[in-house]
UniProtKB/TrEMBL annotation:
Subcellular location: Cytoplasm; Membrane
Organism: Gossypium lobatum
UniProt protein name: Patellin-3
Gene3D superfamilies referenced in this protein's UniProt entry, alphabetically: CRAL-TRIO lipid binding domain (3.40.525.10), GOLD domain (2.60.120.680)
Origin organism lineage: Eukaryota, Viridiplantae, Streptophyta, Embryophyta, Tracheophyta
Biased composition (Basic and acidic residues): 115-147
Biased composition (Pro residues): 35-44
Pfam families referenced in this protein's UniProt entry, alphabetically: CRAL_TRIO, CRAL_TRIO_N, GOLD_PATL1_C
């Protein structure tokens, strides 16, 4: 362990000062007062209802260019809230009840296929009665044909009145063939056959003059037998209609409940599903119907936007320096960095926002990046399912860029409506004074829950603010940390020690070293402008001090991180000295490791 000595004693660290800034109101009168879309933020400022987090927010002092202190306006500090649980059994009773009611609504919607309902599905029950109409029309046509057949039969039967035997035969046969009780359904057809057979036998005994009479008898017999047949046709048709109405649903088998997933998690499956549903409930203050409507709208939008196919699209890597993921905060949330200063590159700006097609591509790229990041989250009830957003406003194009503002508003609307509760903290760094003024304008329109996630830091306080939430070994070097790509000696697993050096004070760091050892260290002072030197002091009294690094002044432009090493064959210590001759406090970061070696 390194032993530290201070030349001048440091009093206890001063409490964080309240953030104060003077607002020149005339300079913000031309801003658009849209509460959900601050101009320079194309990235999710996220939602009216962002995510859960237990990080405390502290106001940060911001430097004000040429502003009189007399007209000072303070931005009040937001009250942080405690991170809510995602374990269903630990929810308060009202929230647990709301979750159960939401599940019931979703289950009914899945059973009725409301998430993927199409017009054809709803019209199917109406289309089924159409065959009945066709049958009725066919029955009517048959009746008309039969009536037409009956009419000539009656006319012919009037002609053979001259013959005396025929009418008697007809009467006898009709009387004989009229059964007292009504026959079964198939009986009328049998009677017709019998009558025709008997009439045919008698036809042989009649002379040629009575041929017409026999034909008339046959037609009259058939005509007499026809009405029961018509009744049979009418009666079943009358019975089929009500049966088809009652059994309509039974005839068409109901499809199984549909399966709907969001971010790869089914809406109703297990504990992970509860985590998803709780996000929508919290976004709507546990109003069940509002949360259910939000879920349905999100599912519909994801299909229209083509989220599943979007994940496989190749949208290029031109914006990889604008938005990127790197490291985790102290609570394990992944950190997403949004660097708007990159749009100072005119070529990049034009290629991204010049026209509607390019802005649409940027929006799809941003949604694709967010979707891929969300898929890496842990949706278990005790897992990490939110992220931290760091928004770097240094050299941001500002609100004057119409194209950027349009893309910002569009992205924010989509994120607010379809990605609830995914942001644990919104940290704005390198914030210009005008942005704080703009934020004050829109602050009344934001909920306390949303405001409690916002943290603002001026350029001078950006690194210090980040270190409150993210360990220095996880912070990229461009933001004051020690996280670098491609390094081999140290990684994010090697912890960093933080020390605050008072103004006009020296600070020494000692690394003990044993015999035949190789000591490796790296350090940085945020903002530098200090003197740095290193030397080896042997344990033996008769040993000689060795200058490892001659004392020199290091500016912010010289080196970001100093990496050095020292090999020795005798025990002793390496002493690093940092001399802060400025009137400002300095943040020192360092870490080391010892490796054995042999000559």
């Amino acid at each position: 362990m390194a032993q530290e000595t201070l030349t001048s004693e440091s009093p206890p660290a001063a409490p964080a000062q309240e953030l104060s800034v003077v607002v020149e109101k005339p300079q913000v009168t031309d801003k658009e007062p849209q509460p959900s879309a601050p101009a320079p933020l194309p990235e999710p400022k996220v939602p009216e209802k962002p995510a859960v987090v237990a990080v405390e927010e502290e106001a940060v002092e911001v430097e004000k260019p040429k502003v009189e202190e007399k007209e000072e306006t303070k931005i009040t500090q937001s009250v942080s809230f405690k991170e809510e649980t995602n374990i269903a059994g630990e929810l308060p009773e009202p929230q647990k009840k709301a979750l159960d009611e939401l599940k019931q609504l979703i289950q009914e919607a899945l059973n009725n296929h409301e998430f993927t309902a199409k017009p054809e599905v709803e019209e199917k029950p109406v289309a089924e009665p159409e065959p009945k109409k066709e049958e009725e029309e066919e029955n009517k046509e048959e009746k008309k044909v039969e009536k037409e057949e009956e009419t000539p039969a009656a006319e012919i039967s009037e002609e053979p009145k001259i013959v005396t035997d025929a009418p008697a035969a007809v009467e006898v046969k009709e009387e004989e063939n009229t059964p007292p009780p009504p026959p079964p359904a198939e009986a009328p057809a049998a009677e017709v056959v019998v009558v025709e057979t008997e009439v045919a036998e008698k036809a042989k005994a009649v002379d040629d003059d009575g041929a017409k009479t026999v034909e008339a008898i046959e037609e009259s017999v058939v005509a007499v037998a026809a009405p029961p047949a018509e009744k049979e046709k009418e009666e079943p048709s009358a019975e089929v209609a009500p049966q088809s109405e009652e059994t309509k649903e039974a005839l068409v088998p109901s499809p199984p409940p549909e399966e709907v997933s969001i971010w790869g998690i089914p809406l109703l499956a297990d504990e992970k599903s509860d985590v998803i549903l709780l996000k929508f409930l919290r976004a709507r203050d546990f109003k069940v119907k509002d949360a259910f409507a939000m879920i349905k709208n999100t599912v519909s939008w994801r299909k229209e936007f083509g989220i599943e196919t979007l994940l496989d699209e190749d949208l290029g890597n031109e914006l990889e320096k604008v938005v990127f993921m790197q490291g985790f905060d102290k609570e394990g949330h992944p950190v997403c960095y949004n660097v708007y200063g990159e749009f100072q590159n005119k070529e990049l700006y034009q290629n991204t926002f010049a026209d509607e097609e390019k802005r649409s591509k940027f929006l799809r790229w941003r949604i694709q990046f967010l979707e891929k990041s969300i898929r890496k989250l842990d949706f278990n009830p005790t897992g990490i399912n939110t992220m931290v957003q760091v928004n770097d406003l240094k050299n941001s194009p500002g609100p004057g860029k119409k194209e950027l503002r349009q893309a910002t508003n569009q992205a924010l609307n989509l994120l607010q409506d379809n990605y609830p509760e995914f942001v644990a903290k919104q940290v704005f760094i390198n914030v210009p004074w005008w942005y704080l003024a703009f934020n004050r304008m829109i602050s009344p329109f934001l909920t306390q829950r949303t405001k409690s996630k916002f943290v603002f830091a001026s350029p001078a306080k950006s690194a210090e603010t980040l270190f409150k939430y993210i360990a220095p070994e996880q912070v990229p070097v461009q933001y004051g940390g020690l996280s670098r790509e491609g390094e081999q000696e140290f990684s994010v697993a090697d912890a960093v020690t933080e020390v605050t050096i008072k103004p006009a004070a020296k600070h020494s760091v000692e690394f003990p070293i044993t015999e035949n050892s190789n000591l490796v260290w790296e350090l940085r002072v945020v903002g530098w402008e200090v003197n740095y030197g290193a030397e080896f002091v042997p344990t033996a009294e008769d040993g000689y001090t060795v200058i490892v690094s001659k004392t020199r002044k290091v500016s912010s432009a010289d080196e970001t991180v100093i990496s050095d090493s020292f090999k020795t064959g005798e025990p002793g210590k390496v002493v690093l000295t940092i001399d802060n001759q400025t009137s400002k406090k300095k943040k020192l970061l360092y870490r080391s490791k010892t490796k054995p070696y042999s000559d």
